Amino acid sequence: MRIASLYRYPVKGLSPERLPRATLTRGQYFPGDRLFAIENGPSGFDPAEPVHQPKIKYLMLMRNEALARLRTRYDDASGDLIIDHEGKQALRASTVTTEGHERITAFFEAFMPDELRGTPRWLGAPEGYRFTDSPKGFVSIINLASVAELASRVGSPLDPLRFRGNVMVEGLAPWAEFDLVGQELATASGARLRVTKRIVRCAATNVDPQTGLRDQQIPKALMDAYGHADCGVYCEVLEGGTLTEGEALNLAGAPTQPALGIA
User: Which end of the chain, C or N, has fewer beta carbons within 10 A?
Assistant: First the structure.
C-alpha cells in the first residue's frame, strides 16, 4: 500500500489543500484539518465547552453544493483565508481578528443568501477539537482502487476528492481497506495508525468537487452495488511520524519500504 496523495481541509465544507507530507502527532488529528467551520444559524456550539455537533449545523457540501464552486486556501503563517471565485480572488481575510471574521461571514451572506438559516458565524476549533464529521475521525484513508471500482459500476469517472479523505492510497485491491479495521499501519518514519472504523458516506459525495454540480447518487450507488454505503476508513494516531507522498504504508510488523520520491 502506497501513499498516493495527502490532503487537509482547513475549513469544513471548503477546498482541499494537497500536501507533500504531513507530520502526525500521537493522539491528535491530521495536521491543519477541519480547523474552522461556518455556523449556519445558531448551532449551540460553545468553544469554551466544545461538544461534537451534527454537520448540518454548519455550511457543508451535503446541503450547500455551491461551496464547491469556491477555491479556498488557508495561510498558516498569517492566519488568512483566501477565497477565489470564478478565477479571481474574491476575499482575503484574517481568521484571527473580529474584523476578519465579519468579512468572511459577509462574503457568505452575499454568496449564498438563500441557503442561510440565520446569520453565519465563523468558528475556530479550540485545542483538542476539530470540526470532523465523526468525533473520532482523526485521519481518513481512501483506497483509490475502491473509487475506481465504484466508478466502473456507475459508468462515469469519479474524482476521489468527492470523499474528502486525508490519505489517498494505492496498491490495495478494491475494498480491501475494510479488512484493515482493527489492524495497525506504520511508515518508515515511525508513524503508527490504528484503523478504527469504516466511513459511512452521505450526500456530500454526490457533489462534483470541481464543478459544484450534484451529478451522482453515491450512497445509493454503493448500496445498490455492494449492500453498504461505506467508502474509506478512519484511523487514530498511535505514534507520531511523517506521512510522505510515495511512501509505503505497511501493516505494523511488516518490512518497511522507503519513500519513492514522488514530487
Answer: C
Lookup: cell for 244: 510522505
Helix axes 218-226, 144-154, angle to 10 degrees: 90
Specify the pLDDT at position 262.
Answer: 37
Q: What is the full DSSP assignment across 58-126?
A: B--TTT-GGGGGEEEEEETTTTEEEEEETTEEEEEEESSSHHHHHHHHHHHHHH-GGG-SS--EEEEPP
E-state strands within the chain: 2-8, 17-19, 21-24, 36-39, 70-75, 80-85, 88-94, 121-124, 139-143, 167-170, 184-186, 192-200, 230-239, 241-244, 250-251
Q: Whats the size of the chain, residue-wise?
A: 263
Pairing of β 139-143 and β 167-170: parallel
Rounded Cα distance between 166 and 181, Å, is 17
Q: Give 20's contacts (C-beta < 8 A, 6+ positions apart).
A: 6, 244, 245, 263
163 has pLDDT over 70: yes
User: How far are the Cα atoms of 104, 134, 164, 175 from residue 140, in angstroms, in the given order?
Assistant: 28, 10, 8, 15
Confirm if 190 and 241 have CB atoms less than 8 A apart.
yes
Judge contact between 73 and 15, C-beta under 8 A. Answer: yes
- At residue 181, the 3 state secondary structure works out as coil
3-state secondary structure of 223: helix
Closest CA to 91 of 74, 114, 113: 74
255 CB-near residues (< 8 Å, 6+ apart): none
Whether pLDDT at 220 is above 70 = yes
